[in-house]
Amino acid sequence: MTEELKSKIQQIMARYPKKESALMPALTLVQKANGNNLTPEHVVEVAEVIGVSKSRAYGVATYYTMFNVDKKVGKYHLQVDTNIPATLMGAREIFDYLSEKLQIKHGETTPDGLFTLSKVECLASCGTCPVVQVNDVYYELMTKEKVDMLIDSLRKGVMPDLPVEYNWATQCNVLLRNRGVENAKSIEVYKKNGGYKTLAKALKMNPVDIVNEVRNSQLRGRGGAGFPTGVKWGFVPKNTDKPIYLICNADEGEPGTFKDRQILAYDPHLLIEGMAIASHALGCKTAFIYIRGEFAWIARILEKAIDEAKSDGQLNHMQDIIVHQGAGSYVCGEETALIESIEGKRGLPRMKPPFPAVSGLYGCPTIVNNVETLASIPYIVENGAEAFKKWGSEAGYGFKLFGVSGAVNKPGVYECPMGISFDELIELAGGIKGNMIGVIIGGLSVPILTAEELKQGLGLKMDYESAIQYGTSLGSGGVMVISDEFSIPEIAARTIQFYNHESCGQCTPCRMGSDMLVQLLNKIVEGKGEKGDIDKVVWFCDNIKGNTLCPTGEAYASPIKAMINKYRNEFEKLIIV
Amino acid sequence: MENSIKITIDGQVFETSPGKTVLDVARENNIYIPTLCYHPRTGKAGKCRACLVEVEGLRGLKESCALDARDGMVVKTNTEQIIQVRKMIVELYLSNGEHNCIACEQNGHCELQDMAYHLGIERPSFLMDYQHVPLDESSAGIIRDNNKCIECGRCITACNNNVMHEVLDFGWRSGHTKVICDNDLPMGQSSCVQCGECVQVCPVGALTFKNAKGKGPFWELEKKKTICTYCGVGCSIDMYVKDDKWVYSMGTEDNWENQTNKGMLCVKGRFGFDFLNREDRLNTPLIRKNGKLEPATWDEALDLVATKLNETKAKYGPGAIGFFSSARTTNEENYALMRLARGVVFTNNIDHCARL
After folding, report:
1. Burial of A99 (0-12, 13-18, 19+ CB in 10 A)
2. Contact (CB<8Å) A507/B61
3. Is residue B327 over pLDDT 80?
4. Is A524 on the interface with B (CB under 8 A)?
5. Is ipTM beyond 0.85?
6. B172 CB near a chain A CB, below 8 Å?
7. Global pTM value
């Protein structure tokens, strides 16, 4: 390791309240400096610089999938998202095309050391699949022609610029207000459009009044669980002598969800303003944005925006906002796993209680909020709770980003009032492509709805209560439309493959139960299923649900059970004996 | 009882003092709740999910190892749902890995075996594809058999939080999760000091002592509590003995909180007792007669030492005599020797080997 690299690591260590937090950023740096590879010796060196045990550093390096420990990766790592939304939009064809073109299979590297091809899990690009991530850069809406262009260019040593037409629209004009504005990510443009005025107003307000306003707005967390934000903020102990931390959860990774990146990449100051206001309300001095490692380029956008905001004097009431990059782990979207990850550990969820609001990051009171939640705060503080509640109903108030992917004509992100009808949302997304057989409305972890179910009742509305009435959940608002081109058993098998890949491995039912379900469902899909196998799957789902250390077990047990219950015939058809 | 609480478990009311977990109360009253990751000396971990119980008024099943017993609490430990979850856990373990008890060192002393026994599961109802991994026998005293590991994490907590050697951790994730030494080195090449704490807390046969292999199944061993003779700390040891031969040592677990060593041992206390079994071990003092060491009684030996000390003192003065004490003795014994040197022999020549 060069002295320059060491001093860079030491600078990162100094920025964090505890030096161990620099472990992941340090590994990322060293890997980058070593042509995309990490050797065990590198990991040991990093451990020594940071002052943690070798086993801890090695445990971290092998936990996160983006660290290439002891696996040779070529100059260009081509990573094809093959998760459900990607599959629904043709990712397999793109992967096969790449595989044939480069004459390598999954995990292999071309003999010239130029390309490594990998199938990876959801890249939060569901509306723009197929997507190929090349090192740090996303190439979206890939076609065979674009793949040819990409590979030709890479062979010449140039990362090409392949423009993408994104679909989006807003009915509320809040979260996506600046989406179409040129260079909205610069502070000048943001301020010209009225940005940071709310922060100035908030800083003159009593923090308690801000918390009350947010509580009165009945804003519910937009990350998926839907917990009332103001109530969560109220859990922070009063008169504590410990520092209070605010963490923005930007670990967007639930398949079907690609909404937060619209704010992160195109309107970062909206998020920073929301965080600055929330920090004032909570008494937080150091805040974090935990962003998934694959969003490295967005992390750079955020860092630049934070620097701008600091130079502009917007963050004078705070010490710092630190952008902490993940390195490939879905479970780190769970708030306690995320906290562990910032502490420089494996992303293992903690037992609760205590809840983070009481004992979170470094054992201090911590509030973890989703990007969209925090980006909603300026509007509420500026216009008041009542203005926020003009959208939606008791069943869910305010504006919400919905990501629509799969079998629709215009997959994309749409900002709509809470409670918009499912049909209207689909219309915004250009209508159904083909014949819909089912839909997953809140990210992959919620139960699927059949086309018949959607026709029943008063019609599904996209809010918390209506989703529950239909036996599912609004989750993160990631809508995946499934057409008859796809088989539900295959989707079930691919679903468990994802959660099995992402299971942190800590608790028995999730670690081994997901292994078991992968084997059983693959067996069924491969046409080798025996009588009783389907019931076994259901038995495992029933016993895993609610009995794992964190919600991940339920996140696959519920949807898989729903797929079997609602499409049992399709599974039965595959059984041979 | 003042300041006491009442808690109902499986219909029985128990009066107990506050500050205990539901698991504590159940165990005090001989109610079986299986645990695989919880150990009194490594604490709750939430990993195995074997100790889940039902609590009236609380949603879902709760980890009894982490649940504070509260007054009026009504707990059930044997509902159909709980039994099903326990069965799933045992099924999952038995279907994956190599949990064959027949020749296992931990047979009869294995917490996974106990759990399977209580549930009546002799073999799993299905098997998963499993790749055997070679044993790690690279270290001097410990055999690691990852095929039997259940990833409970006790050894890791013990290594990092109890003895603080920081050698073990988890590596990789999901089904690939495994316990690693340093950067996944064989134990013998790692920074492990062979204190054996990991073996002591292992609930199954994944970590065993080399010196105990084949020396006798657990039920043939007799536990004898003693104090380690290696240094003045006075660690409490449970020696497992068969036919009056030492087999292996464990730090005393009973009332461990009040032992000086809190259940832990160092490499000497753990492994350094093989001399007990040797034929050529000294059993009596020896006196050199005509150039040859011959067995003697303690009286003979002490008389000889006293005579020689007196002679030397009379002939050359007390400065000609020196005393050398050992780190294997206690502070009190060292003090007594110092008094003998200074107060009886009148010499200041006394030193100590503060090393072994």
Report:
1. middle
2. no
3. no
4. no
5. yes
6. yes
7. 0.94
